[in-house]
Amino acid sequence: MSSSKVTPGIRVGIGGWTFEPWRDNFYPADLPQKQELHYASRQVTAIEVNGTYYSTMKPESFRKWHDETPEDFVFSLKASRFATNRKLLAGAGESITRFVESGIGELKNKLGPIVWQFMPTKAFEAEDFAAFLALLPKKEGSRALRHVMDVRHESFMTPDYLALARRHGVATVFTDSPKFPSFANLTADFAYARLMNSDAKLKNGYAPKALAAWAGHAQHWAEGGTPAGLPRVDGVDDVAAKTREVFVFFINGAKEKAPAAAGALLAKLRG
What we know:
By secondary structure, this protein is of the alpha/beta class. The protein has helices at 22-25, 36-40, 51-54, 59-68, 81-84, 93-100, 126-135, 159-168, 208-222, 258-270; strands spanning 10-15, 46-49, 74-78, 111-117, 139-140, 143-144, 147-150, 171-172, 174-175, 190-195, 245-250. Helix 7 runs parallel beside helix 8.
């Protein structure tokens, strides 16, 4: 499966590359485990790294990932949980700095958005959240950083949160999971979707009609539009853009189906 000839700006991927069930339905049977990233990065166009949420990686790891993947590949990194899983976000400065200075710059041009994931119990408190956003660095060295908020409490579904995110130039995750709030208002000049509702009974995790719809949504976003049919907070427009970079990750849900779903969506986008 080639990762080329997809609409410029649209990236489709999976979460990580080490998952035992994928050795039965994604990786070739005789593939050495140390070659999994090399293989996966040539089937999809982006990977969201979950390991960085749980532990601090070394610069050598980021350098190795950079060297093993195609030139146009991108890694999205989930930021350290020590920065987000706290009562007062305003005190996260040290944890944020430790993560950003852990060597992520070694990914160079393959460094994609950084995802800051919050607990489902973390409610929106405007003053504290504003203080957190003010702590997020705009650059790492000379490289610009892009930040994405994965907010999981329905109190964030308000114009106040959206205005705050927009003011700081950070994106907001859209998810189709019924477990978390789902709103597609764009608060930055790029879109970031985490699709978590795959069904183990379906060949590709999602029905062909659903994948066709997601191909359409991604195209609309990439062309600077607002897709119809996605839930939104009423009365709040998207950040205007002539074109956008779009990230769509199949993640969680029936995870064993994620590579098939990503491959099927890439095929529809090429079609």
